[in-house]
């Protein structure tokens, strides 16, 4: 379904431009200049406006050369995901950068909401079943699940988990090293399934004390009654009391 984007340095062997290209024809003159320019931009590509500016070639020359390079199978066109009218030309040796495609969560220039929601549901149920998970545990569970044909990167999974935290489906907590945290190093970030509010169907809800902001505060270890960070000055704690 999705292919993780690799670094721009991963590329196929380029044809010998000084002699013949993959279609058997030699690249000379303006074609070679434009092709070298396009290749130099790697995964970011370049638009025709910048080609004309950098080469000083007339528009007709650029248009004709680009058409020839496409016919020879040396370049491709990628539309910018935010500006569909803007085209970028890339060498076929490179995959387009996420700045052009929108990254892993975009498909044909559109945010793939169905794919994202499916991943969020799978991840939420993993955490719900395990009760408490580290990001490493979540990554490993995704690998072992075999639910997706394409392996997700750690970065992608972290984005999904962070989305669940923002949706109040998952709570981010720090390990204390005791009780349920017994086998997790002290201070390690962990994730718990939220039973308050927008949890999965059928999950019992807890009382208001379960949603106290201190439970997910990343500065809780620095919070003291008379310190810079304290319950008396915490705007989140005050709002929670008002609620």
TrEMBL record:
Q: Does the keyword Signal apply?
A: no
Which range is the signal sequence, renumbered to this chain? none
> Which compartments is it annotated to reside in?
Nucleus
Sorted alphabetically, the keyword list is: DNA-directed RNA polymerase, Nucleus, Transcription
Q: Which domain of life is it from?
A: Eukaryota
One of the GO biological process terms? transcription by RNA polymerase III
**What is one Pfam family matched by this protein?**
RNA_pol_Rpc34
Q: What is its main location?
A: nucleus
Q: List the residue ranges of the region (Disordered).
A: 1-24
Mention any one GO cellular component term assigned to this protein in its UniProt record. Answer: RNA polymerase III complex
Which family is annotated?
Belongs to the eukaryotic RPC34/RPC39 RNA polymerase subunit family.
Return the protein name. DNA-directed RNA polymerase III subunit RPC6
